[in-house]
Design brief:
The structure holds 2 protein chains of 2 kinds. Chain A is built from 6 helices and 3 strands; from the N terminus they run αββααααβα. By secondary structure, chain A is mainly alpha-helical. The model of chain A has no long low-confidence stretch (mean pLDDT about 80). The longest helix of chain B has 19 residues. The chains are: A mainly alpha, B alpha/beta.
Chain lengths: ~180, ~300
């Protein structure tokens, strides 16, 4: 009797590419759909990530607006772009400049853990701001999509093995002195 | 025991299973987008003379006390003649965008006719609508103020002509047998300034009481007469003593005079004739109370009348 064996591997280039594509897909609803509904003393508003950052800016909170914009819009896109670059560079064997690509990889991996700012913000606000008729905050679908995108990006980064950047390289390359 | 047969290694799948993940992501993304679009109704544009308090993304269009849409955009017109407001309606409120719908801005109002829109002191203004029945439309001309109540219900308005206003204020009651059946809407000087014109509104259930032969008089103010046969005080209610008021009676001569048309004009006597008070024509009315009574199958009111 024989059984066929299937593998659902979360490792390897293919897995990394698949997860990165999934993350990119989730970024679309994350940015287009509202993330938070705030109802303060009867006036309701629904914000996407971008309109939230614009609103912070208009209220004179420029620094926070820049943080939100960077952490929630720029960095997720940069991370995916970096990942796409890495995956494309190893498509035909090891890249020409593995050292630079390794730096790109460590940067993406390092920054991944700081990407949930928006999700934390929404979680805190919905938990804290529940004053019935006076003020209520409700999380919307966009924040779920955003969280999915962040998690998928982290998984895609984890799935990528940086050793593939050096595969087939002669060991004779000078190692950086410790 | 023979060794296990060598595993047959098939070549790497052209389509690794992991690619199910992005497919699920696409499905979820599409579903989320669909859900968001599903509740979206049409966008309508309303022109207002004045846009005090309207804010993009915050001001809502309310109908029957609940949100029916949100202002997406508010901007001055190019020729500075007013403001343009774009409202995204909810899907279920799409029927509000029919050709003869009337839109206006609700501001807090405190007057003799009562307090309106007090909640807007705290929440900021909101828009509201009186839905029309016409074909769907995209562009509307907003009203400058709350439309007169005759638009809101199906009552009728009549013009009373009087020598003097006699403490009649807007919102003052109109009585029939000392029961409030309407209110004073507006008053102005006649075109030749020889008299005062008062517009009164009679609520829908009571419009049948006003006939072309009806007599109106002013119940407001305070009058006291002393003559040879004793003292006489004008018989009036406390409410009309303060805000002024109008009463009317209809002669009971048969057949009854035809019901007065909307906008019909009557004289306003300063005082009631004794004879008018005796008139008791039988006119069927559908007062709101009688509807409640029927629904309850005979509540307090009939038992009061029987006892």
């Amino acid at each position: 009797m024989s059984r066929r064996l299937f593998t659902l591997s979360f490792r390897g280039r293919s897995a990394s590419a698949a997860l990165a594509v999934a993350a990119a897909v989730m970024l679309v609803p994350a940015n287009l759909l509202p993330v938070l509904d705030t109802d303060s003393s009867g006036s309701l508003r629904s914000d996407t990530i971008f309109s939230g950052a614009v609103e912070l800016w208009r209220h004179g909170l420029g620094a926070i607006a820049v943080i939100v914009f960077t952490a929630s819009i720029v960095i997720p896109i940069l991370k995916l772009a970096g990942l796409a670059w890495l995956l494309l560079s190893v498509r035909n064997g090891a890249p020409d400049n593995p050292r630079r690509m390794t730096r790109v990889y460590s940067a993406i991996e390092f920054i991944g853990r700081w990407s949930m700012l928006d999700v934390f913000l929404a979680a805190f606000l919905t938990g804290l701001v529940q004053f019935g008729g006076l003020s209520t905050v409700v999380a919307r679908g966009g924040i779920v999509a955003f969280a999915c995108a962040v998690v998928l990006t982290v998984l895609a980064t984890q799935a990528f093995d940086p050793r593939t950047l050096w595969e087939g390289r002669p060991a004779a390359l000078p190692l950086p002195s410790p | 025991m023979s060794p296990a047969p060598a595993p047959k290694v098939s070549r790497e799948r052209a389509f690794p299973l992991i690619w199910i993940v992005p497919m699920i992501a696409v499905a979820i993304g599409l579903w989320m987008g669909y859900r968001e679009l599903r509740d979206r109704g049409p966008e309508i544009t309303i022109d207002f003379e004045d846009g005090t308090g309207i804010e993009t993304g915050k001001t809502v269009l309310e109908y029957k006390g609940v949100s029916a849409g949100t202002v997406q955009y508010v901007e001055l017109k190019h020729d500075l003649s007013g403001v343009t407001v774009r409202v995204r309606l909810k899907k279920k409120a799409a029927a509000l965008a029919s050709a003869d719908s009337k839109f206006w801005i609700v501001h807090p109002e405190i007057g003799f006719s009562g307090v309106h829109g007090l909640e807007t002191l705290v929440t900021g203004v909101h828009l509201t609508v009186l839905p029309g029945k016409g074909a769907p439309a995209k562009r509307f001309k907003g009203l400058d103020k709350t439309p007169a109540p005759d638009v809101v219900d199906e009552g009728r308005s009549f013009i009373l002509q009087s020598d003097r206003l006699g403490s009649l204020t807007t919102g003052a009651p109109v009585f029939y047998r000392e029961l409030k059946v309407g209110s004073v809407e507006a008053s102005r000087l006649s075109d030749d300034s020889t008299s005062v014109l008062v517009r009164v509104h009679i609520e829908a259930p009571y419009v049948g009481l006003v006939r072309t032969s009806s007599k109106f008089w002013n119940t407001g103010g305070f009058s006291f007469k002393v003559n040879l046969f004793g003292a006489q005080m004008k018989d009036t209610s406390l409410e009309s003593l303060i805000t002024g008021g109008v009463a009317f009676a209809t002669p009971d001569t048969l057949p009854l005079a035809p019901a007065a048309e909307d906008g019909a004009q009557f004289g306003l006597a300063p005082e009631a004739d004794k004879e008018w008070m005796k008139w008791a024509p039988k006119i069927p009315v559908k007062s709101p109370e009688s509807v409640v009574e029927k629904a309850k199958g005979g509540g307090i009111l009939p038992s009061l009348i029987k006892s």
